[in-house]
TrEMBL record, chains A, B:
Organism field: Halocatena salina
Name recorded for this polypeptide: Dihydroxyacetone kinase subunit DhaK
Keyword Iron-sulfur: no
Keywords from the UniProt entry: ATP-binding, Kinase, Nucleotide-binding, Plasmid, Transferase
Coiled-coil zones: none
Domain DhaK: start-end pairs: 7-328
Gene Ontology CC entries for this record: cytosol
Amino acid sequence: MKKLLNDPSEMVDEMVDGIVAAYPDHTRRLDDTNVIVRNDAPVSGKVGVVSGGGSGHEPTHAGFVGEGMLDGAAAGEVFTSPTADELSEMIQACDGGAGVLCVVKNYEGDVMNFDTAAEMAELSGVDTVEQVVVNDDVAVEDSTYTSGRRGVQGTIFVHKCAGALAERGADIEEVVRVAEKVIDNVGSMGMALTSCVTPEKGEPTFDIDDDEIEIGIGIHGEPGVERTELVEADAIAERLTNEVLDDVQPSGEVAVMVNGMGGTPQSELFVVNRTVQELLVDNGLAPWNTWVGNYMTSLDMAGCSVTILDLDEELMELLDSPTTAPAFKTK
Amino acid sequence: MKKLLNDPSEMVDEMVDGIVAAYPDHTRRLDDTNVIVRNDAPVSGKVGVVSGGGSGHEPTHAGFVGEGMLDGAAAGEVFTSPTADELSEMIQACDGGAGVLCVVKNYEGDVMNFDTAAEMAELSGVDTVEQVVVNDDVAVEDSTYTSGRRGVQGTIFVHKCAGALAERGADIEEVVRVAEKVIDNVGSMGMALTSCVTPEKGEPTFDIDDDEIEIGIGIHGEPGVERTELVEADAIAERLTNEVLDDVQPSGEVAVMVNGMGGTPQSELFVVNRTVQELLVDNGLAPWNTWVGNYMTSLDMAGCSVTILDLDEELMELLDSPTTAPAFKTK
C-alpha cells in the first residue's frame, strides 16, 4: 500500500484537522469529535442542514459545509457511520431554533445512527429534527450495507438545494419539501476500473482483473450489476447514462454530474462527459449545468459515476444560489 | 492499462469536446483546434490573458478559462506543447485590441512555440503580445524538458491575478507587472508515489518500487532530487514545505495550494495539509487562503505538491475577485 498517511488509524482525525485548517474562515471542528460545522453555527432562526457518513468519500461531506449549503458534516471512520453521539452533537450545534434537517445516504448504519441521534438531540432540547434519506443509485435494490437503493452522488444536489432554501429563511417543512423533491428527481450510477484500498487494511477491498470492470459499483466497493471486460469509455458512458435516464425519466432541463471515484484523472472524466452530453441532447434534454470532477469518491478507486437531476425553475434557482462551500461552484 | 478512454490517439480531441460540453455558458472551442476560449472572446478593450501546454494536467489550463481568469487555453497532445499555429490562433481570438499576455510554463517546447506564435499573431495584426514564463518549481535547475526551473502549480495563481486585473480594464503593462509579481513570489515542489501512465504508450513513464517515492518530481515524471523509501505524510509535507519556504522566504500572509497529482484522494491531501499549515504557523506566517485538490495533475500519478505564494494587499484582492472559471473557487 502506498499512501500519503501517517498512522493509518489516525487518518480521519488528521484529515478533519487538515480540512478545518484549509477553510478556517468557514469551518470549525466540534471539540472531541470528527464533526465540522460552519464557523457561525448555529445561525439563529435558520433551519440547520446537516449530513455525514463514513470517511473515504472526500470532498463529501465536509467540502460542502458553508453558507448556503451544509451547516455541519460528521466524518465516521473510513466506510463506517459516524456514531449517534457525534451526530447528536452536530445536530445540537447546528440548531438555530428553527429545526434541523439531516440528509442521510441510504446505508443501514447511517440511517440507524441518525435515527438515534435525532432522538438524543430532541431529548437535549432541539425542537424539531427531520430526516430525508437519499437513495439515488439506480444500479441495485439492496446491497452489502443497504436495504433498498444506495445513496450516492445525488446527495450533493440535495445538500445544495436544501441548504440554499434554508439560507433564505424557509421553514423546516419547506426545506424538507425541497430535499424530497430532489430525491424524487435524481438518479446516479457508477462503475469501477480498480478497487479502492482502505488505509487500515492496506489491501484492495475486492479483486478485479486487469481486463475487467465492474458496472453499478457502490462507493464502498459493494458489488454492482455486472462484471465485464474492459470496454471503451463511450460504451461505459452510454450504459450509465441510459440506466439513469430510464429511472429518472427527465423531460427538459437537467443538472449533470460526471464524478470521479478518486483515482481517475479529469481528462478521462471529460472524455466520458462528451458522450453523456451527446446522449442527453439526443434524448431531447437540455443540460442546464454540469459538474465534472471528484465530488463523492471511494478513496483511490479508479472509475466514475453519472448523476442526472430533472430540474424545474425552483431547483435551478437553488442550485445556482451562492455558497461558500469550498467543493461546490455555481455557474 | 486501465483507463476511461476510446481510441487513445483521440483522447485530447474528445476531452476538449467534453470540456466545452460541460461549460457551454462560458467556453467554446476554436474550429479545427484544441483551443478553448471564453464564449465572449475577444472582449473589446480588455487585455487578453491566455495559456496552454501539453494535456494530461487537467483541470490545467482549460478549467481556468472564464471571466476574471483566462481568455483562452490551448491543449497540446499529452505532455506535448501545442503547436505555434494553434497558439497564434488563440492569441488572435483573444485580442480585444488591448494586447494579449501569454502565461507560459517554463518548458522548452512551450516557450519556443509561444515565441513563434507571438510573432505570427503580430504579423496577423495583433498589436501587442507579451509573454511571462513561470518557473516556480524549486526542486531542480534544468530538467528533462527545461532549461532553468520548471513551471508548475504556481502558474494557476498567475492566471488568477493577471486575469482579475485584466478584467478590471488594466493595460497590458499593468497585467504583465502583476503576473511577474506572482512569479517572483511563488514556489512549488512536488513528489510522487507512483508513475503516471500515458494513454498512447499505455505503460508507466518511469519505474518506481513499491516501497519508494520520488521527491521533487516534475509533472511529466521528470526526475526529482531524491528517490527515497516510503515515509510518513508528515515527513513529506515537511520536506516540501520547508524547501518552498527556503526559496520564497515569505514574511506575512500566504496563499497555499496542496495539489493532488491526479491519482491521490483528497483525504490524503488533507492529511498533508494539516502539517503544511502547522509549519506555516510555526514559521510565523498567516495562511490567508488554501486550495486543496487536483489543480495541476500528471494524469493518474499518485502524489502531491505544495505551493506557497507570498502575498500583499494587491494579490489578495486579485485572488479573491470573482471568476466564472469552473476549477477555481474564491473564498
